[in-house]
């Protein structure tokens, strides 16, 4: 179900992440062999805090409360009651609250460094805008620095988000693992998907405590092509691969991933978003044939 823009129900994905306490969204972004894009050397991971930030859902129209007041009238030597109690709405002004907590920041930072160590990564970059949002992003950076001290073997750096975007489109090889608050992660991860061919190629996995995980493709519901046999299933299939790895079924995951990559590299069967003309079913059958 598509999420309505500017009205209607809350995002179902966001609801699942909040209800299941899926605090880290992990999105691998790799150049695919045999599929040519502007860059041939993209190999990075974005890790996004998933439960708070600007996506806390705390929005409201600005208003203020008026109250009764007693005032003294010097000529009549009397106290008078001025009654004006109520709520006044400020038209055309709304507020959205950004929530950053120490607990959530430490948790996602710890996961990012643990991920980097477990997967042989050498650098973790904390993405922020603390030069403007000094309290919220400042707290996030403080937590990242605290965790970084426990991993001296991993290089730690801090990059302002606008500079990060520029660096990514100039040379994505500068980055390895990126960790960031919610909104920045949403933006940066989609930017990274564009570096390797689009959202149709990009998997993700949401990680919670106690081993819980939810894998999902990062693209939307694409209602314009629903039921037309045109969708690229790669992102969903690679998300399933991440779930298999999470379940320690590495042999099965490797088998499926190789079949997907070999199908794309072969070039005979590709969906429209990859420059081909194959239907979803044709592309899927080709992957099955490569198993």
Brief digest:
With about 290 residues, the chain is of the alpha/beta class.
Architecture overview:
There is one protein chain. This protein is an alpha/beta fold. The protein is about 35% helix and about 25% strand. The strands form three sheets. A seven-stranded mixed beta sheet has the order 8-7-9-2-1-10-11, with helices on both faces. Strands 3-6 form a two-stranded antiparallel ribbon. Strand 10 (about 205-210) and strand 11 (about 215) form a beta hairpin. The model has no long low-confidence stretch (mean pLDDT about 90).
Side-by-side strand order of the widest sheet: 8-7-9-2-1-10-11
The succession of helices and strands, N to C, reads: HEEEEEEHEHEHEHEEHHH
Question: What is the end-to-end distance?
Answer: 31 Å
Strand composition percent: 15-25%
Largest sheet: 7 strands, mixed
Mean pLDDT, as a whole number? 88
- Please tally the β strands and state the result: 11
Give the low-confidence spans. Answer: none
Shape: globular
- Helix/strand-derived class? alpha/beta
Fraction of residues in helices? 25-40%
- Number of helix segments? 8
């Amino acid at each position: 179900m598509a999420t309505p823009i500017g009205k209607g129900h809350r995002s179902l994905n966001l609801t699942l992440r909040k209800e299941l306490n899926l605090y880290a969204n992990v999105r691998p972004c790799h150049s695919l062999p045999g599929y040519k894009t502007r860059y041939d050397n993209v190999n990075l991971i974005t890790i996004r805090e998933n439960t708070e930030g600007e996506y806390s859902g705390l929005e409201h129209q600005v208003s203020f409360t008026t109250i009764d007041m007693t005032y003294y009238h010097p000529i009549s030597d009397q106290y008078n009651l001025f009654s004006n109690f109520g709520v006044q709405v400020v038209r055309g002004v709304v507020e959205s609250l950004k929530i950053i907590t120490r607990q959530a920041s430490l948790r996602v930072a710890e996961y990012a460094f643990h991920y980097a160590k477990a997967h042989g990564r050498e650098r973790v970059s904390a993405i922020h805008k603390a030069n403007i949002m000094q309290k919220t992003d400042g707290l996030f950076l403080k937590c990242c620095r605290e965790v970084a001290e426990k991993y001296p073997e991993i290089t730690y750096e801090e990059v302002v988000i606008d500079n990060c975007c520029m660096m990514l489109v100039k040379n994505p090889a500068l980055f390895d693992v990126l960790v960031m608050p919610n909104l920045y992660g949403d933006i940066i991860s989609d930017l990274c998907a564009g570096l390797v061919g689009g959202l149709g190629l990009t998997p993700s996995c949401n990680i919670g405590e106690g081993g819980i995980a939810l894998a999902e493709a990062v693209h939307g519901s694409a209602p314009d092509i629903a039921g037309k046999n045109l969708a690229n299933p790669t992102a969903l299939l690679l998300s399933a691969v991440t779930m298999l790895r999470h379940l320690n079924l590495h042999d099965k995951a490797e088998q499926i991933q190789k079949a997907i990559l070999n199908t794309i590299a072969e070039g005979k069967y590709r969906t429209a978003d990859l420059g081909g003309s194959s239907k979803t079913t044709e592309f899927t059958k080709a992957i099955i044939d490569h198993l």
